[in-house]
Design goal:
By secondary structure, this protein is an alpha/beta fold. The chain is 32% helix and 16% strand. Bound molecules: flavin mononucleotide (FMN).
Length: 365
């Protein structure tokens, strides 16, 4: 791989759908379980996101588009008027601080628990997550999900579209459809979790159908230029076994390439990976890449800047960071000046409350 002399810098502006971004750094979506039990965003979330308004774009944490899609306790939702009102305080605070936001829409599928949502989880096929699920009373064995009927699939697609409308009403510039990391959309894509024999299973064309229908319904509702899709080719966590990774993403990208979406967002993107390279060649729009920084380890000393620059040179348009933004409200400034980063306090990611959430210092104090 050679470095393209036209490679943009992380600190150059970029256009994204209806937005003009002042830099190419995106805050990746991160579940922080600080909403109330009813999924209503709390004022502390407005403080947290406004502190991080220096990001070129913030993609707010996974929000559930319906009740059965709720993964864990205390994650936010976006399916009724209280959720819209709660999120509006967040988008207003971020806007007042000069920032821009999308909201991630996530249906958990088999990653969920009756204790969290009050409902039995649903999925492409009745195959349990081979793991435990975090609930308010601790880690519980995952239950065998119920397979969605064709009618329920249509309703779920409609729920995503309604949630996207709610997100725009709440002041978000757009939404990111979560097709990554083992949640419902990814469960449809993967052979290991999708054993359906109807038109939503079997061949690659069948397994990508639900994702394509969700993305198109959301785009029809709020405009394709306001819709991104997150994918995680080859991801093997959360019990995922895709089987034919290269074929899945080749087909998905070919199907959506002409739709005029805001972006495609690739998780754990590796510039040496042939699937990543093929996606870049085939995807005509904005590509956001989330570099591999080493999961469960401290962030690299340069905050991921070298990894980000390698991905820009490989054709990514924007770079997303998760933990860097979590622990450094002024991450853009720190990366620009080469300042030392605050270390991530891992034990406080999902604990609720202000500690480890809104108390990370900026360079200014
Ligand atoms: C606390 C935490 C919560 C996360 N929640 C989500 C989420 O809601 N949706 C999602 O797509 N990814 C989620 N992720 C993954 C991040 O978006 C990102 O892909 C990952 O942290 C790797 O980027 P990093 O090395 O810059 O942290 C989460 C990560 C962390 C650390």
């Amino acid at each position: 791989m050679t470095t393209n002399t036209k490679t943009p810098s992380l600190f150059q502006p970029a256009d994204l759908g209806p937005l003009h971004l002042p830099n190419r750094l995106v805050m990746a979506p991160m579940t922080r379980t600080r909403a109330g039990a009813d999924g209503v965003p709390q004022p502390i979330m407005a403080t947290y996101y406004a502190q991080r308004a220096g990001a070129g774009l913030i993609i707010a944490e996974a929000a559930t588009p319906n009740r059965v899609g709720q993964t864990y306790a205390d994650i936010p939702a976006i399916y009724d008027a209280r959720h819209v009102a709660g999120w509006r305080t967040v988008t207003e605070a971020v806007g007042a601080a000069g920032g821009r936001m999308f909201l991630q829409l996530q249906h958990g599928g088999r990653i969920g628990h009756p204790e969290n949502s009050g409902l039995h989880p649903v999925a492409p096929s009745p195959i349990a997550l081979p793991d435990t699920v975090h609930t308010a009373s601790g880690h519980r064995e995952a239950v065998v999900p119920r397979a969605l009927t064709a009618e329920e699939i249509r309703q779920t697609v409609a729920d995503f579209a309604a949630a996207a409308r709610n997100a725009v009403d709440a002041g978000f510039a757009g939404v990111e459809v979560h097709g990554a990391n083992g949640y419902l959309l990814h469960q449809f894509l993967a052979q290991g979790s999708n054993r359906r024999t109807d038109e939503y299973g079997g061949s690659v064309a069948g397994r990508i159908r639900f994702v394509v229908e969700v993305v198109r319904a959301v785009a029809a509702e709020i405009g394709a230029e306001r819709v991104g899709l997150r994918v995680s080719p080859g991801f093997g966590g959360q019990g995922m076994a895709e089987g034919d990774t290269a074929e899945i993403y080749r087909a998905l990208v070919a199907e959506l390439a002409g739709d005029g979406l805001a972006y495609l967002h690739v998780v754990f993107a590796d510039p040496e990976d042939t699937v990543f390279q093929e996606i870049r060649k085939s995807w005509p729009g904005v590509l956001i890449a989330n570099p591999v920084l080493g999961w469960g380890q401290p962030l690299p000393e340069d905050g991921g800047r070298a990894a980000a620059e390698r991905l820009l040179a490989a054709g990514a348009d924007l770079i997303s960071f998760g933990r860097g933004f979590l622990a450094n409200p002024d991450l853009v400034e720190r990366l620009r000046t080469g300042a030392v980063l605050n270390p991530v306090r891992d034990g406080l990611m999902y604990t609720g409350g202000a500690e480890g959430y809104i108390d990370y210092p900026t360079l200014a104090g």
